[in-house]
Hints:
Blueprint: E1 3-9, E2 19-20, H1 27-30, E3 39-45, E4 50-55, H2 61-66, E5 70-75, E6 85-94, H3 101-106, E7 111-114, H4 120-123, E8 126-128, E9 134-142, E10 147-151, E11 158-161, E12 174-177, E13 181-187, E14 193-199, H5 202-205, E15 210-215
Parallel strand pairs: 6-9, 8-15
Antiparallel strand pairs: 1-3, 2-4, 4-5, 6-7, 9-13, 10-12, 10-14, 11-13, 14-15
Amino acid sequence: GDTVRFTLTNRGAVPHSIDFHAAQTSWSKNYQDVPAGKSVTFDWTAAYPGVFMYHCGTAPVIMHIADGMFGAVIVDPKGGRPAAREYVLVQSEFYGTGGAYQAMLNDPPDVVAFNGQAFRYKTTPLPVSGSELVRIFVVNAGPNSVSAFHVIGALFSHYEPDGFPANAQGMHQTITVPPGDGALVELKFAEPGKYPFVTHKFNDAEKGAVGLFDVT
């Protein structure tokens, strides 16, 4: 129900734009290219609770996304959700050293990461205390690979495709998140220890989409 006022100021050298998957607004009105040195402002209404991607929508879109121009929008239900330790994990792919358009079209990614850096949560695990409820908002920015999100040693007790409460399902061991989509999962850990989270598409996990929960 919130109204979001958004401003994009392009301080780069080439055109950029925005595409909010959470918004319902005219592409031809609000999602057009913003030239270098220019700005655009518009309002949109968060009509649906959920877990959404946003990204630059300027052609070639694949190159803007694969070079890191994306993020997550979390829209909570009215009244919020039950208390939990919450984490946002955005899976994405990187090709070459940037600007590798042909590789993005034809080749497997060189790096697959959570929140922009390969293995970042393997060296710096995400903390969890005791048997508290853990809520994970998962976004797959892609641009190409499906995410098969899984926590080793645990099961998801609650799963919402798109993070939309009416979509709620029960126990899942692995959830599929297509490129451009999002999901919500909840779980509790049975005992203290380290618990890896991965994409179960293991050729992508080996490229960096691995992290750890540290349960104390």
